[in-house]
Amino acid sequence: MKKLITALVAIILTITSMPAQANLKNRTSVPTLAILDSALDTSIPSIKSKLIYEVCILDWPSCPNGKNFMEGQGSSVIPMSILSNSNFNHGTQMSSIAIANNPNMNIIFIRIIGHTSRGMRQTTGVNTIPNALSWVKANKDKYNIVAVSVSQGNQSVLKKAPFNYCPVTSTDNSVNDLYSIGIPVFFPAGNERDLSRINWPACIPNSVAVGGSESYGEVSVLSNYDKNLIDIWSPAGSVSIYPGNRSGNSFGTSVSTQVAAANYVALKSAKPSLTLDQLLSLIKKTAKPITNSLKQQGLLLDLGAALNG
Q1: What's the domain range around 58?
Q2: For labelling alongside 247, which of 9, 28, 95, 172 has CA 20 to 30 A away?
Q3: pTM to 2 decimal places
């Protein structure tokens, strides 16, 4: 009788464990976009269904565990009183936009912005993004990460010269490292209306710099501009979801970055045999030429044309 009971228990345990294993296998076989941003409302149904992992990588001990590194459930979550303010609602907006533009992918959220007790942003050091990108490289196979989107940028570190204005930092090495293994990192051109320079880290040559376009199909005059460094343009306006599952609207090259990255993941899924260079070349070859009243020119990403290209 004891042997029979033991056997039955073993069978039950095997059966009950199978769905979880199968679910994990199915989720990780789906392509994943790693999103680096401020913080995330993980309770929103549309985000929760696509979020497969959370990480917190900061320069300050303000991760939920009181340290500067944390991974696993709850790593990207902060108190709603802080999460919902203008300093930290950005990550939720961006994640919702990425998912809306490609519902056939998963996301990993990596929090890279720390907060004070009063809900202010803490400074982000030169090693924060490299540390986050190193985590992506180390976990790319485990979570099937095929691209990274970082809707964050900085113009104050740029040189004043209109050429060679992009400072070389350890972020270059991290972006180049991922590029060499076929994982692109998407960054926004910025929204300062600079007509001759884009933000750092978008200016890094091997990053995918994304400019913003208007809904009527022109290069947005809001977007920073460098005809030699912006790789692709995408719509700068989108409906989005704010913390608390509130509907809203977002505008800027941060939006463009998520649209472009999500579209890239869709194209990568449809054409898995193509290399990163081939995919980016296809995106540019099939993009729609656009301009504006300032004679600025760009290439508007056209996923449909790329899929048929």
Answers
A1: 31-307
A2: 28
A3: 0.91
